[in-house]
Write a structure and sequence with these properties.
Blueprint (H helix, E strand, L loop, with lengths): L1 H10 L1 E4 L5 E3 L8 E2 L5 E5 L4 E5 L10 E2 L8 H12 L21 E2 L7 E5 L2 E4 L5 E3 H16 L6 H12 L7 H15 L9 H21 L5 H12 L1
Parallel strand pairs: 3-6
Antiparallel strand pairs: 1-2, 4-5, 7-8, 8-9, 9-10
The structure holds zinc ion (2 copies).
Length: 238
């Protein structure tokens, strides 16, 4: 009995959220392995479950899906995999401190002007100077910034922009937290009140922000994915 509960616990997917949420186990889709750079994605509805390729898949290449949101940085993503699915992910993204050149985890060095600290097991090391910082110290910084971000009013564009400026003093410009802000800021940017003027400067800022967000998505969430689709829809509406 406990084995059956364990199998259901690890393999279930949410098909309806909220107080009367529903979770289900689909035997075939549950067979798929996780990758933080998957080549497919699962589609789950109330009465069906399926898998579609998100990028071109070679003959005999293993299909993989993600068990966690892909835009999350390694510092937060890998513990989720460990806590919920009991494995240490060693995919090509997880073993690369730059996360495929995106620097989603990188924080600014306090000892040199252009360096960034990257994760090396339990210590974070600057890519330009010998400076280091403990993982606990980085976790504290990220935790406090996340708490602050989560306390923002989601309809308050000015608050998001102000927080992004502040967080940007500590984080690489592609850091997960700044991209999480861009996910909210971009749709807010597009809700321009009727009859208000859109200046060239505003337009340029929106395009720059969309392109920076897409730069990261192209590397960690390539192909036919929801987030890329939403971002292209925003760019098309500008
Ligand atoms: Zn991984
Ligand atoms: Zn440095």
């Amino acid at each position: 009995m406990s084995h059956a509960v364990g199998v259901a616990e690890v393999n279930n997917v949410e098909i309806r959220s909220g107080p009367c949420g529903v979770r289900a186990v689909y035997p075939l889709t549950s067979l798929l392995s996780h990758s933080c750079v998957p080549n497919a994605r699962s589609i789950v509805g109330a009465t069906f479950a399926g898998v579609i390729a998100s990028v071109d898949v070679a003959q005999n290449q293993e299909l993989s899906i993600t068990y966690v949101p892909l835009h999350i940085c390694s510092l937060l993503r890998r513990p989720q995999l460990k806590d919920n699915w009991y494995f240490d992910c060693r995919c090509r993204r997880c073993v690369d401190p730059t996360e495929l050149g995106t620097f989603l985890d990188a924080i600014r060095c306090r000892k040199c002007p252009s360096g960034h600290l990257l994760p090396r097991e339990l210590t974070w090391v600057c890519d330009r100077c010998p400076s280091t910082r403990s993982k606990e110290s980085v976790q504290q910084l990220i935790g406090s910034l996340l708490d602050e971000k989560d306390s923002l009013d989601r309809s308050d564009l000015a608050a998001y922009l102000s927080f992004s400026n502040k967080a940007g003093r500590h984080l690489h410009q592609n850091h997960y937290i700044l991209n999480a802000c861009r996910r909210w800021i971009l749709p807010l940017y597009c809700r321009v009140p009727a009859n208000s003027e859109i200046t060239n400067d505003m337009l340029k800022r929106k395009i720059d922000m969309s392109e920076r967000y897409l730069y990261v998505l192209d590397r960690v969430e390539a192909g036919l994915t929801k987030n890329r689709g939403k971002c292209y829809a925003i760019l098309a509406s500008l």
